[in-house]
């Protein structure tokens, strides 16, 4: 009987031990899951970003000086042309006839003037007749010169070297001074003109310590058909900052010149300009993701597995990281799961498979 009681007591003790162990395991399993991170030492550059479009620094609209039907139109979009290259040929026949007519009139007045000039030298005609003949000759000469000039304008030439951005007409169309036959730009000189809000005026105006870069995001399909995004970057310099703020839009214009564009950027592309204005060296950096929706953060106590809510002082920040005071250099911050816990709560830490920082 005693043996049976002892056996029953052993079984009961083992059952209670397993039950307590299971409860402890279940309790640990039910804790909120978080991942943690410690600050790392590094440099941080504070910046602001603005969106805009790439433009050629100078876009030349090739406007014909005379009107007429286009007979030849050799230019093509994307073609590189040199100064003086024929962009279009306008029907020259009407202008040739005007030139010949003006030439005949000029030659007639020239002969008349030559005859009267000889008579004037012999005092046969009056000074008034001489000056009248000379004025008629000069007017006819001006008309003839104008006709020759207009004839030359039938060959519409590129006024500068560059790349043809637009060629909106075609053979048979009527060219006029109301619309360009082509638009030419030097793609080696590209800019981004931005209208920047008034609150940044003091930051930009007469500040030589700013550094800027321009970038655009492109999407590539990898071999396994997954979309991958990457940024194409280029340095840029601040060419000009308007010395005034527009009263209507409360903005001021700033022009950024893109350096070493190559084939990276083309006019019309949507880009972002990032302007760096402050740099922190040897700062304690944390991923910006440690901040909760209200701007606070949670630190993790390894001794009792609890979390504590704090309002960290932020010394600087960029799009990826925040800089915190050095006193936090050995502090463990909760990186993921912080938006579903509360102050003082116990948590379970798992290894961060994609750590930041």
TrEMBL record:
Keywords associated with the record: Signal
Domain Multidrug resistance protein MdtA-like alpha-helical hairpin: 96-154
Every Multidrug resistance protein MdtA-like barrel-sandwich hybrid domain range: 62-184
Keyword Signal: yes
Organism listed in the record: Candidatus Gallitreponema excrementavium
Stored InterPro entries: MdtA-like_BSH, MdtA-like_HH, RND_pump_MFP
Gene Ontology CC entries for this record: efflux pump complex
Homology family: Belongs to the membrane fusion protein (MFP) (TC 8.A.1) family.
Name of the protein in question: Efflux RND transporter periplasmic adaptor subunit
Signal peptide extent: 1-24
GO terms, molecular function: efflux transmembrane transporter activity
Keyword Signal included in the entry's annotation: yes
């Amino acid at each position: 009987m005693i043996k049976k009681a002892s056996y029953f007591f052993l079984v009961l003790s083992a059952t209670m031990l397993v039950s307590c162990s299971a409860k402890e395991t279940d309790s640990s399993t039910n804790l909120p899951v978080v991942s943690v991170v410690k600050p790392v030492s590094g440099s941080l550059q504070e910046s602001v970003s603005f969106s805009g479009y790439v433009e050629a620094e100078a876009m030349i609209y090739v406007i014909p000086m005379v009107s007429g039907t286009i007979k030849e139109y050799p230019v093509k979009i994307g073609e590189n042309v040199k100064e003086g290259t024929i962009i279009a040929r306008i029907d020259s026949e009407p202008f040739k006839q005007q030139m010949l007519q003006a030439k005949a009139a000029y030659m007639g007045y020239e002969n008349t003037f030559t005859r009267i000039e000889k008579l004037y030298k012999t005092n046969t005609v009056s000074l008034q007749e001489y000056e009248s003949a000379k004025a008629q000759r000069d007017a006819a000469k001006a008309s003839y010169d104008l006709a020759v000039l207009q004839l030359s304008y039938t060959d519409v030439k590129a006024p500068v070297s560059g790349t043809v951005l637009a060629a909106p007409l075609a053979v048979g169309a009527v060219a006029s001074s109301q619309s360009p036959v082509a638009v030419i730009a030097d793609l080696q000189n590209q800019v981004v003109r931005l209208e920047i809000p008034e609150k940044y005026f003091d930051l930009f105006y007469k500040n030589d310590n700013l550094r800027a870069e321009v970038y655009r995001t492109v999407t590539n399909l990898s071999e396994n058909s997954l979309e991958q995004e990457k940024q194409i970057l280029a340095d840029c310099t601040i060419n000009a900052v308007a010395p005034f703020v527009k009263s209507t839009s409360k903005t001021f214009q700033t022009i950024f010149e893109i350096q070493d564009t190559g084939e990276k950027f083309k006019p019309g592309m949507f880009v972002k300009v990032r302007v760096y204005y402050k740099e922190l060296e040897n700062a304690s950096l944390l991923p910006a993701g440690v901040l909760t929706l209200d701007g606070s953060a949670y630190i993790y106590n390894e001794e009792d597995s609890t979390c504590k809510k704090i309002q960290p002082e932020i010394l600087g920040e960029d799009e990826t990281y925040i800089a915190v005071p050095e006193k936090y250099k050995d502090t463990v911050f909760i990186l993921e799961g912080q938006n579903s816990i509360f102050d003082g709560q116990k948590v379970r830490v798992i290894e961060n498979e994609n750590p930041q920082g």
